[in-house]
Amino acid sequence: MEEREQRYEFIIVGGGIAGVTCAQQLASQFPSDVVLLLSASRLIKAVTNFKQVSKTLEKFDIEEQSASVFQESYPNILVIESTVTELNTAQHRVTAENGKEYVYGQLCICAGARPKLIQQNNPYVLGIRDTDTAKEFQKRLSDARRVIVVGNGGIALELVYEIEGCEVIWAIKDKDIGNTFFDPGAAQFLLPSLMGEKPDVLLQCKRTKFTTEGGDQQMDSSTTNRTLGSALGPDWHEGMKLKGTRQVFHKVHIEYQCEVDQLYLKDDFLKLKKTAIAFPENKEEEKISKPDNDLWPVYICLTNGKIYGCDFIVSATGVVPNIEPFVKDATLEVIGSGIKVDDHMRTTTTDVYAAGDICTTSWQPSPHWQQMRLWTQARQMGWYAAKCMTADRQGESIDMDFCFELFAHITKFFNYKVVLLGKYNGQDLGTDQELMVRCTSGQEYVKVVMQRGKMMGAVLIGDTDLEETFENLILNQMDLSAYGEDLLNPGIDIEDYFD
Ligand SMILES: Cc1cc2nc3c(=O)[nH]c(=O)nc-3n(C[C@H](O)[C@H](O)[C@H](O)COP(=O)(O)OP(=O)(O)OC[C@H]3O[C@@H](n4cnc5c(N)ncnc54)[C@H](O)[C@@H]3O)c2cc1C
Ligand SMILES: NC(=O)C1=CN([C@@H]2O[C@H](COP(=O)(O)OP(=O)(O)OC[C@H]3O[C@@H](n4cnc5c(N)ncnc54)[C@H](O)[C@@H]3O)[C@@H](O)[C@H]2O)C=CC1
């Protein structure tokens, strides 16, 4: 008979980047121990081809793998597809959905996050997180004439640019697009790319690549937990047809500074005897708000008084960490919405660590770092958590990893390479910050955030090739006052000065 309770020196919960990286690191540190990886998702995310591009910028590929393929490369990692439902820290025990119990020596919780939707249980409101939700979105889009995208962060920016053959109404709370990544200047620089025609040739830039090789065949909806898959990431839409039913090529209308007030299903809306607005085809129609003669399955009333009908709504409104099974145990403190971790990725209870999207950091950060729920940070935290677990187990001390010195993120928006460094939006810098901007329309946007002559952050859009130099300048905090505006003078080869 199979034992109901098994003991493992190391148990990791979560098969996303954070959990898998943590398990890999522990498995190589302790080759004679078995590392147990419990994951609600059938496929796990493995980091491959990792390259340190510069001191803090990194590049890697991600592969979705089945447990059996992954275990071939890591024979001392045991992957079990199972959702953890309870944690009992007093007994060092986790309980899985089938009632099976696992006792740990050390535990690292890497259960990620899920979309924070504007309305739960509404069949017309979709969030995008994992392969299942991305496929559901693609399926709905293939029959759609109009979608409404709510939110102004990473997912919304990607969708409004990629969707074709369908009218897109983009409702944002802010005055400008892309508020989680950009300042108003950068938003203005990017806007023409959204409203104009897309380039035929897509930019190939150095960035992480998402591969779903074999994912299709391996998907089995009966065993895949719909709400708890691993997060997608860079290039998730590559090779995916994001096309609606209309002949229109790329058509986006933005409603600024508004939120969702009410949602109505068609029958309820018709009873209200209110008028919805047609998709504004031009500036003139924006002013006069032509009534919409089409009928739609769902209607959205915005706080600016406008009402639009659509086929479905994408709620790209941030994430909420999957903490519920773990915080039933009262010893785990929560800050913000995540599990609180200290500078050694320890939670508030002994032998329990957390990493990735599920955690909220509570250490005093370096002046140029902030937590953001991103792929790179999930990998870094998973790796560092394993180092800290090892050190604690061996009674050694360990310094905070260098990757937490500087926030560094490479990505792509609207087919431009985007690099964000340090306090790129002047986060928490107070009032004595200064901005310097260099912008060539359609080509590049360079912004640096300066404080008392020192560089604190930068936004680099386009192929600026400035990331390494600026990374050094932020890290070494050299006094740059003497250079004044020349710092961004394109006629001066800045790298010669500072490399
Ligand atoms: C559409 C999309 C695009 C993105 N694009 C980018 C990008 O371009 N760049 C970037 O840096 N970041 C991007 N991100 C963010 C990035 O993907 C995440 O920050 C990162 O993957 C989080 O990794 P994680 O391991 O912490 O969590 P997840 O990937 O969410 O993994 C959590 C794991 O835990 C499992 N799990 C959950 N609950 C339980 C439980 N109770 N028991 C057992 N297992 C459980 C899940 O099945 C999953 O395997 C994107 C995210 C999305 C959704
Ligand atoms: N290229 C990249 O780096 C990408 C990163 N991601 C990451 O994936 C995760 C999920 O992405 P997003 O959902 O876009 O989250 P996000 O955190 O990037 O953005 C959320 C947006 O929703 C807005 N919002 C929140 N509540 C709202 C409400 N009730 N009504 C209207 N707007 C509201 C916020 O103001 C913000 O603009 C994030 O961690 C994000 O950083 C996602 C896509 C691309």
From TrEMBL:
Residues 411-477 form the NADH-rubredoxin oxidoreductase C-terminal domain. One of its GO terms (molecular function) is oxidoreductase activity. Transmembrane segments: none annotated. Keywords: FAD, Flavoprotein, Oxidoreductase. The keyword Lipid biosynthesis does not apply. Pfam families: Pyr_redox_2, Rubredoxin_C. Residues 9-215, 274-382 form the FAD/NAD(P)-binding domain. It comes from the Eukaryota. Its cofactor is FAD. Signal peptide: none annotated. InterPro entries: FAD-bd_OxRdtase, FAD/NAD-bd_sf, FAD/NAD-binding_dom, FAD/NAD-linked_Rdtase_dimer_sf, Rubredoxin_C. The keyword Flavoprotein applies. Probable FAD-dependent oxidoreductase; involved in the cellular oxidative stress response. Required for normal sarcomere structure and muscle fiber integrity. Belongs to the class-I pyridine nucleotide-disulfide oxidoreductase family. PYROXD1 subfamily. This is Pyridine nucleotide-disulfide oxidoreductase domain-containing protein 1. It comes from Erpetoichthys calabaricus. The lineage of its organism: Eukaryota, Metazoa, Chordata, Craniata, Vertebrata.
